[in-house]
């Protein structure tokens, strides 16, 4: 089934769904060719009552200064962060979840709808291949200590690395996805290895990927009021030649490519390669051989006349001046030093943190409930132990229930406060408009 897309969005990607229901349920390989699926957020838009209304572009300044819209009760917040599910996708995800759970291969922490969907989409909904890939992912996370990176790893050379390896997140595209930019033609590889090591650079990349999943996507979802689950990237290859692909550079490229494709699948929405000259085009033929067909379909190679294509996807206010946009981030020492975007908004971060605390409390409650069932079987042999256990269980439930209620109250308070701020800003805007009209009349009077 083909799905029409808006002008300038994903126009180079062939969208097909084929007979994935039959193939995914059987898990048999070779029944059909690979499909290039729609963007991963295709079915995750928050329902809207206003049709045909032109969507306003979001600048970094407006995202960081505009108070968060009032979501109403926590259910609306959940709809934005979780998104609505495509029924066909949901059916296959549930079958995949049941298969993993039945074999004891699905840890509660990773029993996440969107994570499972990513692995299924990457493998064209083949559950057998997706299972192997998912298990390798869990093994890698354990060996690499991914869950401990934010506690154990500090990239103290961050600023110095950025100077000889310009890269970073900056703003959002017109759909609200985070924009990632690299200027690989400006990498000073010799200086880079004097500042850091290959191992630390790779660990830094993993920590950034984790931050994107844990903070950037949720913050962008709240700001755009729709589920965001992928990134739009720009790779500036101006000045790239064979010298940029030394043996250490090739190792880093291959290792990062392996990590992204194997452990963070389906997080790329679109990659624009810009300023591609004849030298890079020769390299691109070799590089393309290491990329999957699905990834290549999301890449658009452009020469020096790239600006009009970028502006179809990204507002000028979210593009640095060195790419033809309007932003300089001079107060941060440059756009790629700023890491600017909705994920820097303290109000959004507060709501994300509150939601995580609430989820953690509710997850703890589930664990306590499962444990209590097991303990009751043993405690039936001793009435005194049973009474003590029930009292302890009741206390634990009361504490957990209180944590959930406090989290919900905190969200309600935030929503009410943000609503008041929005009303105050509206009042100030009206007063400003009246002042402008008065000044205009005064100017006309002076001219007369």
From TrEMBL:
Residues 411-445 form a coiled coil. It is a peripheral membrane protein. It holds the Pfam family CRAL_TRIO. Signal peptide: none annotated. It comes from the Eukaryota. PROSITE patterns: CRAL_TRIO (PS50191). GO terms for molecular function: phosphatidylinositol transfer activity. It is found in: Cell membrane; Golgi apparatus membrane. Residues 157-331 form the CRAL-TRIO domain. GO terms for cellular component: Golgi membrane; plasma membrane. Keywords: Coiled coil, Golgi apparatus, Protein transport, Transport. GO terms for biological process: post-Golgi vesicle-mediated transport; protein transport. InterPro entries: CRAL-TRIO_dom (IPR001251), CRAL-TRIO_dom_sf (IPR036865), CRAL/TRIO_N_dom (IPR011074), CRAL/TRIO_N_dom_sf (IPR036273), PI/PC_transfer (IPR051026). Belongs to the SFH family. PANTHER family: CRAL-TRIO DOMAIN-CONTAINING PROTEIN YKL091C-RELATED, PHOSPHATIDYLINOSITOL_PHOSPHATIDYLCHOLINE TRANSFER PROTEIN SFH11. This is Putative cellular retinaldehyde binding/alpha-tocopherol transport, CRAL/TRIO. It comes from Medicago truncatula.
